[in-house]
Amino acid sequence: MSKEEKQLPAKQQLFIKEYLIDLNGTQAAIRAGYSQKTANEQASRLLANANIRSAVQEAMDKRSEDLGIDAKYVLQTIKNTIERCSQAEQVKGPDGTVSGEYKFDSSAVLKGAELLGKHLKMFTDKAEVEHKGNVTLLLSNDDASI
């Protein structure tokens, strides 16, 4: 249990534990004993709490570390899956005999490519801009009403 989590009320600690099961805030709130009618709002409020967010992130980081899962592992798994699914396999009949046909798992290849593309930010309409320093806004006379 993290330092932040120890400072939280028992019901909030239970929410964190339940949230880590499936990352579903509404269901976690219900399982932690919050009203089913207001579970969605409670989950939103709880997840906006800095101490709860910190405790969740710490638990997720620990879980990833314990399992040896990092970005390199995830990307390598996606790459391996794409390569494996890109191979055409002979189709076998129910009795195990080769039919002479080949199958190719295009949906898995495309899904893997999509995940890699998202990681590389290839499919985004948004641009991330990092700026350090001052920004000067220049307005023309046409923009004076802004």
Please list the strands of the largest sheet in the order they lie side by side. 1-2
CATH class of the largest domain: Mainly Alpha
The largest sheet is: 2 strands, antiparallel
Q: Mind telling me which CATH architecture of the largest domain this is?
A: Orthogonal Bundle
What portion of residues belong to β-strands?
A: 5-15%
CATH superfamily of the largest domain: Terminase, small subunit, N-terminal DNA-binding domain, HTH motif
N- to C-terminal separation? 51 Å
Tally of structural domains: 2
Gyration radius, in Å: 24 Å
Question: How many helices?
Answer: 7
Topology:
Blueprint: H1 3-6, H2 10-22, H3 25-31, H4 39-48, H5 50-67, H6 71-85, E1 89-92, E2 98-103, H7 106-119
Antiparallel strand pairs: 1-2
Helix pairs in contact: 2-3, 2-5, 3-4, 6-7
Can you characterise this structure?
The mean pLDDT is 86. The chain has helices spanning 3-6, 10-22, 25-31, 39-48, 50-67, 71-85, 106-119; strands spanning 89-92, 98-103. A hairpin with a 5-residue loop joins β1 (89-92) and β2. Strands 1-2 form a two-stranded antiparallel sheet. 55% of the residues lie in helices and 7% in strands. It folds into 2 domains: 3-67, Terminase, small subunit, N-terminal DNA-binding domain, HTH motif (Arc Repressor Mutant, subunit A, Orthogonal Bundle), CATH 1.10.10.1400; 71-119, no CATH class.
